[in-house]
Amino acid sequence: MPVLLRSEVNPRPRTLARLKKTANTLLESAALADYELSILLVDDNRMMELNSTYRGINKPTNVLSFPIAEEIVDDPSSPLPKMLGDIVISLDTAAREASENGSILEDYLSILLVHGFVHLLGYDHERGEEDALRMTDREKELLRKLNEGSTLSTLSGA
Q1: Rounded to 5°, angle at Cα 146 from 6 and 97
Q2: Which of 8, 38, 49, 137 is the 20 to 30 A CA-CA neighbour of 91?
Q3: Torsion-angle region of residue 128: left (phi > 0), alpha (psi -120 to 50) or beta?
Q4: Does domain 3-146 have CATH number 3.40.390.30?
Q5: Is the pTM of this model over 0.90?
């Protein structure tokens, strides 16, 4: 199934092809290659709207994830397409955080994509320390698969 990638940010970043390739690799690594994933790049104003609407927090964040279902269920008899969910990334916040961390923007966008993807898999660092550790472990596992020998780390840096 396809990775749907769209950018509301003008000009469009040069990293779209890399993000799409990374998303496809993530789907394959999670044995979900036949699922559809949507990625949207936005600015801080749009992210603040989304964060306020869906989380009640009136400020931008780096990434939001919107799973299609609470649990991934593989039903081969269903005529519906298999959809994992949507990931929204603020390019403004990503650029700011990448600069603050001394990271390359393209690398940091991959880290944010992995973080959002792991949320779609059902992990949530906001449910407590134990869940946060499990989520970080899954992020590390996926980042290792994406970048053997790379310097990418999880958002928590753990």
Answers
A1: 60
A2: 137
A3: left
A4: yes
A5: no
